[in-house]
Amino acid sequence: MNHEATTPCLLHIDTSVSPPGESVSRRLTALFADCWRRSRGAAGHRYRYRDLAAEPVPYVTADYARFGYRVERHGTVPVDQVAGLVGDAADAGVWRVTLPLVEEVLAADILLLGVPMYNLTVPAALLAWIDRISFPGALLDPETGAGRLRDKQVVVVSARGGGYGPGAPREGLDFQVPYLRGYFTDRGVPEEQLHFVTAELTRAWDVPTMAPLRSLAADSEAAARQAVTELADRLAAGEREEAARYAV
């Protein structure tokens, strides 16, 4: 058996345009990744990192849509057979950009997404990545039609400058977490495998009118740090238990 194929893989994706020292979402995803790798320890792990702000995924174009629709007319085509449907240089360019992103997702056991809120929703860089990996049929089992993300753990670490919880002035204006919950559940991820950790009021430190909220902001980030630490340890422990069952 290929050891690498059975070693859990964490795909860590950041999307904040702010540098690590200033970005709350980057600090929290780094903490999760460090805790998970430490918990895995000698049990082994694979780790992949992608910074969508530093290296943006190209937005989908008319060429992407044209090729995707043509592939879709053949039914659910296995990812490793899509290249056989490439008809010209435009198709080849689309698939050259898209395939590595799809393969990274399919190879991962845990998807870790750092997602700041921009203008009430997710960053455009994340939307571009989602559009790419959602190439027609790429996330479906060609034999059953079931979602190929159904066995993955998805961890979304979100950060937002204001407050959007119950009773907050902006309650109901969160189009960040609901969108990602809808996307991943629609792709077959069970609710119990979809984890959200949120830090709020992150702009309290640089918006003068939010200065009175700084203690609440600090409490929110501290709670988020504890949550990602516990979640990383719990998921790593679950992987160790599953590996032990298969080893018997």
Structural descriptors:
five-stranded parallel sheet; 13% strand; Rossmann fold; 7 helices; alpha/beta; 248 residues
Any overview of this molecule?
This protein is 42% helix and 13% strand. By secondary structure, it is α/β, with parallel strands linked by helices. The chain has a single domain, classed as Rossmann fold, CATH 3.40.50. The protein has a five-stranded parallel beta sheet with strand order 2-1-3-4-5, with helices on both faces. The longest helix is centred in the C-terminal third of the chain and has 34 residues, at 214-247. The two termini are 15 Å apart. The mean pLDDT is 93.
| Rg measurement, Å | 19 Å
Mean pLDDT: 93
Oligomeric state of the chains?
single chain
Estimate the global geometry from the Cα principal axes.
Answer: globular
Number of E-type strands:
5
Number of H- or I-type helical stretches: 7
Give the structural class.
alpha/beta
Gap from first CA to last CA? 15 Å
- Which blocks of ≥5 consecutive residues have pLDDT under 50? none
Major β-sheet annotation: 5 strands, parallel
Q: Kindly state the percentage of residues in helix.
A: 40-55%
Whole-number count of domains:
1
Strand fraction equals: 5-15%
CATH topology: Rossmann fold
